[in-house]
Amino acid sequence: MIGLTAQPLDVNAMVRAVQTHAHGAVATFLGTTRETSPGDPRPVVALEYEAYPAMAVEEMETIAREVRERFGPLEIAMLHRTGRVVLGEPSVAIVIAAPHRGPAFDACRYAIDELKSRVAVWKREVYRDGDAAWVENAPP
Amino acid sequence: MRIRVLAFARLRELLGFGVGELEVDDGATLEDVWARLARDAAGLGALRSSTRFAHNGALATGSTALSDGDEIALLPPVGGG
User: Smaller CB count within 10 Å for chain B: N or C?
Assistant: First the structure.
């Protein structure tokens, strides 16, 4: 379960997709739409995402491979929304099932950091007054 | 020869299209295509240093030579998550 979706993220379905009896830990990261912007004083009401699907999914699969190589036997689900994501809703979800909590947390942190710096997804903030602006992630 | 051009986010808005077809000279490079697009789209040229190119779905440098039917993409800094 790795890729892009225009639908709301179902985290429980992601947990079910990765968790087995070999796993004693499931770590979840959700990135959600926040009302305050670091670059603009106006309240944010939504984020709008667009992607280059072919490149984005390939890079997400590469990151998933790296996670397994670095953090040992684990399962990973990683989904990113496209389109409009309103205040409070998650735009990205990463779920890692691992034998123990250490690698689960570490893998989750690695996956979101790499996703934010490498995956071909773009977002713009939509403000309460209807205006919108593209925002870029800080370089790693 | 004819190529397909994809543009995203800020670059898509500046160019006025997300997907386009372009007739370019044989032997043209990615940088040549960028230069041509930048002539017509105000504000595009200033974004060259922050723009990355993709060629048939993989990151590529500006000196990459293009062939008929290729797909190129103009990628601004990403903003996922």
Answer: N
Burial of B43 (0-12, 13-18, 19+ CB in 10 A): exposed
Which residues in chain A have Cβ-Cβ distances shorter than 8 Å to B76?
Answer: 122, 134, 136
Q: How many domains does chain A have?
A: 1
What is the reported pLDDT for A140? 62
Q: Is A122's CB within 8 Å of B81's CB?
A: no
Q: Within a domain: residue A140?
A: no
* Nearest chain A residue (CA) to B19: A52
CATH label of the domain that carries residue A85:
3.90.1170.40
Cross-chain CB nearest to A52 (options B8, B77, B81): B8
CATH superfamily of B2-75: Beta-grasp domain (3.10.20.30)
Residue A75 resides in a domain: yes
**What is the pLDDT at residue A91?**
98
Segment A68-126, tens digit of pLDDT: 999 999 999 999 999 999 999 999 999 999 999 999 999 999 999 999 999 999 999 99
- How big, in percent rounded to 5, are the helix, strand and coil portions of chain A? 30, 35, 30
Q: What is the pLDDT of residue A138?
A: 81
On chain B, the residues whose CB falls within 8 A of the CB of A134 are: 9-10, 76, 79
Residues of chain B short of pLDDT 50, as ranges, are: none
Contacts (Cβ under 8 Å, ≥6 apart) of B29: B62, B63, B64, B65, B66
Chain-chain contact of B80 with A54 (C-beta, under 8 angstroms)? no
